[in-house]
Amino acid sequence: MTDHIIEKNATAQPKLTAGSLKTGASGRQKSFHILTLGCKVNQYESEAIREIFLADGYRESTALETADVYIVNTCTVTNIAAKKSRQMLARGKKKNPDCVVIAVGCYVQREHQTLKESLGIDILIGNHRKKEILTLLGDFYRGREIVDAVEEGYHKPEYEDLRIAGRHERARATIKVQDGCNQFCTYCIIPFARGRVRSRRPGRILEEIKGLAEAGYQEFVITGIHLTSYGLDFSEEIGLIDLLEEIDRIEGVRRIRLGSLEPRLITPEFADRIAKLKHLCPHFHLSLQSGSDAVLAGMNRRYRTADFAAGVRLLRQIYEAPAITTDIIVGFPGESEAEFKKGLEFVREIGFADLHVFKYSKRAGTKAANMPNQVAEEVKNIRSSQMIALGEASKRAYLQGFIGRMAEILPEEEVQLDGRNYTVGHTREYIKAYLPAADKEPVEISVKLGEVYADGMTAEWR
Question: What is the C-alpha to C-alpha distance for residues 167 and 49, in angstroms, rounded to an integer?
Fold first, then answer.
């Protein structure tokens, strides 16, 4: 669960042929601007849309104000995310009355009838026709009427096979392998926005990764709406671990990083098999949501705290100091002070490397929205502050365990902090390392970790 806004900046563009060039009435090449809200799946899909536009001859604009086409890939996981989606869509015509506004994704899937009547949106695409975005744009240009391409997708069995060929980064690529969710946690709207589980065929995934590895990408983040369910819809027995074993064999792949996992995936068999993978990063985001069994039951989470702790023990038997990260929801309906305290104690016992804390967000259409004993906002705020403080202390303790240790990082970007220039990269455990600025290729390099600093650690080149 994330509420991030990521704006794609203009980068070096591919060479355009005269036949592919898209121009306006003035002969000017047409441009687009993408704004992405939400999860890594949305980031992947936005990148695929970006490549579709570039391949068709459009130029990427650094700002909405100068774009002919403004695309917002929306999110609805929380009320805050839904509000941001509305705000970002509304600013389209406000800042650029002449641009074509395209609304895409989860918020559109849930609210397209409302959106058709407001916010100045020209094209609405839910979660099932993103590959057709240029065709739908053409339909709009011809008719100059609202194009509503949102389909009821709850029972849609097909996986829409978007793909990326290369990004402006040359270190890490996100690979979407699965869509949809069958879990129906009582607080979550996503199964209604994304539909049932649909998995991408392994051959298509491996083909994409091979191409990106040949282009110089080192790390691959495997993601999905419910990654643990990968392969559930296949007639043959193929699961996530089978896919990971195939990816691990691809030449040029140096790192495999996993998106969010269900704790129940971490079985002895799964642990035995991942222990043999050469390139899997020891970084596991296991979605806990609550450290209280009573609250987990109310959420319809299909594990209990003992199952979670057992999975963590298995991972710590395989790896020396794996990063175990998680999500926590505070203030779920019926969460008493005693249950919250149980949750705090469980989080303390596990010792997470990082903690993402969310206040329960009441979503219309979910079972939890109609549950009794809703928790007051002021109580949620207090509990959120307490859980965040515990998470920060836990993260600091984890980082302190790496002081003076050698690690491998992938240089990713140059940043300025406290008046100094740094090269920033991440270790396999996803520790952010700040090194003296240097022009380094995006390949794994050995560094020595220093002190805890900012949101990561200082480091020095070796």
Answer: 12
Rounded distance between C-alpha atoms, residue 407 and residue 387, angstroms: 29
pTM score of the predicted model = 0.90
User: Residue 154: what pLDDT?
Assistant: 61
The H-or-E segment that residue 37 falls in is strand 31-37
Distance CA 44, CA 121 (A): 23
Judge whether 72 and 98 are in contact, CB under 8 Å.
Answer: no
Q: What is the mean pLDDT of each run of 10 residues along the chain (462 residues)?
A: 38 35 65 96 95 96 96 95 95 95 96 85 94 96 92 75 76 94 96 95 97 94 98 95 99 97 97 98 98 98 98 98 99 98 98 98 95 98 99 98 97 93 97 92 91 98 91
The C-alpha atoms of residue 446 and residue 172 are separated, in whole angstroms, by: 17
DSSP 195: -
Cβ-contact 284, 228 below 8 angstroms:
no
323-330: strand order across its sheet: 283-285, 323-330, 354-359
Structural tokens at position 58: 């459009």
| Domains (range + CATH), the chain | 5-148 (3.40.50.280), 155-259 (3.30.750.210), 283-400 (3.30.750.200), 406-461 (2.40.50)
Round to whole Å and give the CA distance between 452 and 400: 7
How many helices and strands (H and E) does the chain possess? 12, 19
Classify residue 50 by burial, with Cβ atoms within 10 Å: 0-12, 13-18, 19+. buried
Max Cα separation, the chain?
68
In this prediction, residue 168 carries a pLDDT of 61
Would you tell me how many other CB atoms lie within 10 Å of the CB of residue 441?
12
**Alpha helices (H) along 12-165:** 40-55, 79-95, 106-116, 133-143
Alpha carbon distances (Å) from 391 to 73, 328, 386: 30, 10, 9
